[in-house]
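quick one
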Amino acid sequence: MDFELDEDQVALAELAKGLGGRLKDEYWQDVDENHKFPEEFWNDLASHDLLGIAIPEEFGGIGKGLLEMAIAVEALSEGGAGMEGGALFVSGPVFAGCLITRHGSQKQKETYLPGLVAGDLWAGAFTEPDSGSNISTIRTQATRRGDSYFINGQKVFISQMAHSKHIVVMARTQAYDPAHRTRGISLLLGDLPSPAVEARPFKKMGNHFMDTNAVYFTDYEVPVDNVVGPEGDAWSPMYDVLNPERIILAATAVGTGNLAIRKAVEYAANREVWGRPIGAHQGLQFPLAHARIELASARLKVYEAAWLYDHGLDCGIQAAMAKYSATHASLDAADAAIQTLGGAGYISESGIERHWRNLRLNRIAPVTDEMTLNYVAQHDLGMPRSY
Ligand SMILES: Cc1cc2nc3c(=O)[nH]c(=O)nc-3n(C[C@H](O)[C@H](O)[C@H](O)COP(=O)(O)OP(=O)(O)OC[C@H]3O[C@@H](n4cnc5c(N)ncnc54)[C@H](O)[C@@H]3O)c2cc1C
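structure w/ flavin-adenine dinucleotide:
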């Protein structure tokens, strides 16, 4: 077993760490407070080829894997970009990149992958109001007429609609069969904006760099050629999106947790209230050290899960564990960082509370803690399905 990063991976991590720190906290505070899409940062990612890390070279990418994407994302987040810096990778390299690279036709690869590398944003529409965590019961329907599908239905909590050029929609191309719940579901690629797609944004707690919406499809036309993978049998391709999404958000959480710890350690070295730096108090050191240990363990799970994915092996359990452990480790880190700063930690200007608000989402999306534990209990421990 080799734990050493190779030369390319080290160079990638260094590049990403530098880019993550290029835009200062004031930039990210502005993004957060004014609900802006971080265009300057996104353009930086594209111009340094980071959006194409896991895209084959023949389509303009650099031909590496999910492990390299995870290494880069972690470094971007830790370098200063936080949750914003890594989570953005879901809206392109993961939703479209992982899906199309593994399951797309040659024509789909030629049509979409070069644009993705250059910075096209993608939304992914899976969740529905009445199905929630149980996505096998989705109702959005794609009905074939001639050479097109016409999509009708409602999705909820769909992010990055305002700026996306394309969307992956999960819809039924065959009627729901309770005996075979996952049969009849397809993944379709569409263009945005469209008068047939209405997005109504929600106000939310954090992650203001992305809009999150209720989305309504009314006769949204998608060519038959835009079905990715086998028509009516998208369950397995779907997991080649959901698992990388968990892994990349876990890498983001590890990086963001370490960023919060760094900010806390720097603050604690300079702040004095009893005649010596507050960082000298063991009471402040222990929670930070505790979170650091949790983050280091979570990082190993992230790398392991990404490695399994890259080798075409089943990574479901490791991806679930990576996402769960990184989520909790990073929240512990952000919480300890807030505590270290005292009152200043609660004030937005200090650039700490934002990390906690953003990271809190990972306990809910893209999969909840409870569903993750259900999955591990059933598939790793072999216990009966409890629901
Ligand atoms: C900011 C944000 C951005 C998002 N972006 C996207 C996006 O871009 N695309 C997209 O498709 N989706 C997106 N989502 C949706 C997200 O994936 C879902 O919110 C998540 O999967 C949970 O579904 P739900 O909200 O319907 O919760 P529900 O399924 O209604 O669950 C509610 C609660 O019940 C618990 N629960 C449910 N079933 C069980 C069970 N069997 N055992 C134990 N507990 C259970 C859950 O764990 C949870 O705590 C986003 C969500 C948010 C908040």
